[in-house]
Design goal:
about 350 residues, alpha+beta, Uridine Diphospho-n-acetylenolpyruvylglucosamine Reductase, domain 2, Uridine Diphospho-n-acetylenolpyruvylglucosamine Reductase, domain 3, Uridine Diphospho-n-acetylenolpyruvylglucosamine Reductase, domain 1, 3 domains, binds flavin-adenine dinucleotide
Length: about 350
């Protein structure tokens, strides 16, 4: 176990803000995590705590987190079942997601290739239900193992138990803050089915033969061309989730904007790309203070250099308000907003696990 006091979180999240945590602990075993959760309930009770992964979906408001930040170093992967068709792979929550994708592609196991180059770790993949290019990780998850925060008990959730929805799960909603993911078991295919009809995958592949490797390469190159690299420009990927609206709302907007892109969700609901709404509101490429909307991808808010979390939040709220006024739609953040202290002036400590 590694423990740091007054630790800068700048290398631990992708928005690039200056934030200090009173305590950061990286645990390496389930027993260490159980012991830490015991301390959270006893010695550290009353102080805020937070579990992070790669910090690629976090926005810190304020610059001092006065409690403990936990991070998993549970690594390792094992094949728990295998036949001619498929492999069940159990993976530690601290493994970097894209390292796992690269490993599976190298082994010739299909399923994750469209999810290449998504930042973050295995634990959060199961919390966030990450998705890209027509695939979601819920399509691969067999089960999720956790430790219950209140008891330290080991629990196992089947994929159905996780209540997966678009960028959501039971761990983000009903059981928010109540479980720490320790392992995820994924099902991978030895004779993969390829999903090429989303985004520009086919165009990017051009004449190359369709293999796991070529699809992964195509996805990586499309992403690289349109998404800012957090190492150069702080961001947390898509800042907002795409709103799902009633058909009547959709028809009202469509009458004014007949070219509006959309996806049918079911008979009475339609999903509208939040990036399109932001673009129509004239925010693409614009900045407010040191926060800005990316000029290639309107759904991504960026830290143009030394922006505070508050500046990013002000930009986000301004965009939300303008979209509400113009289209009558509420767009909600996908990022997990973490409220901390601002050391310049007193604010309430309110650890908000998102939404
Ligand atoms: C450039 C860029 C591109 C992106 N593209 C995509 C994309 O295409 N698709 C997509 O879905 N997302 C995308 N994202 C968002 C992000 O990569 C995902 O949400 C990712 O799953 C976050 O993982 P993380 O390990 O960084 O988690 P963090 O951001 O650290 O945490 C996210 C949430 O998970 C919780 N959490 C973390 N680990 C655990 C654990 N072990 N147990 C319980 N809770 C835990 C945290 O408390 C927090 O609520 C992108 C982000 C960036 C910066």
């Amino acid at each position: 176990m590694k423990q740091y006091i007054n630790c800068s979180l700048k290398p631990y999240h992708t928005f690039g803000m200056e934030v200090t945590a009173y305590r950061l602990v990286e645990y390496e075993t389930i027993e260490e995590l159980r012991d830490l959760l015991h301390r959270v309930r006893t010695e550290w009770s009353g102080k805020p705590w937070l579990h992070i992964g790669g910090g690629s979906n976090l926005l810190f408001i304020g610059n001092f987190f006065p409690g403990v930040v936990l991070h998993s170093s549970l690594l390792g992967l094992e094949v728990v079942q295998e036949n001619d068709q498929e492999v069940l792979l159990r993976v530690g929550s601290g493994m970097v997601w894209d390292d796992l994708v690269a490993y599976c592609v190298d082994q010739g196991w299909g399923g994750m290739e469209n999810l290449s180059a998504i930042p973050g770790e295995v634990g959060a993949s199961a919390v966030q239900n990450i998705g890209a290019y027509g695939r979601e990780v819920k399509d691969l998850i067999v089960s999720v193992e956790t430790l219950a925060v209140d008891t330290g008990e080991r629990c196992r959730f089947s994929c159905e138990d996780c209540n997966y929805g678009y960028r959501s799960s039971i761990f983000k909603k009903q059981l928010r803050g109540q479980h720490i993911v320790t392992h995820v078991t994924y099902r991978l295919q030895k004779n993969p089915t390829f999903y090429l009809d989303y985004g520009n995958i086919r165009t990017e592949l051009a004449d190359r033969p369709v293999t796991l490797k070529s699809v992964r390469d195509a996805v990586m190159s499309i992403r690289q061309a349109k998404l800012p690299d957090p190492a150069e420009l702080g961001n947390a990927g898509s800042f907002f989730v795409n709103p799902v609206v009633d058909k009547c709302v959709f028809e009202r907007i469509c009458a004014e904007y007949p070219n509006m892109p959309y996806y049918e969700v079911d008979e009475s609901h339609v999903k509208i790309p939040a990036g399109w709404l932001i673009e129509q509101s004239g925010w693409k490429g614009r900045s407010l203070g040191r926060a800005a909307v990316h000029d290639k991808q309107a759904l991504v808010l960026i830290n143009t250099g030394n922006a505070t979390g508050g500046e990013v939040m002000t930009l986000a709220r301004t965009i939300q308000r303008e979209i509400r006024e113009r289209f009558g739609i509420d767009i909600q953040p996908e990022v997990n907003v973490i409220q901390c202290y601002t050391t310049d002036f007193d604010v309430n400590i309110n650890v908000n696990f998102g939404e």
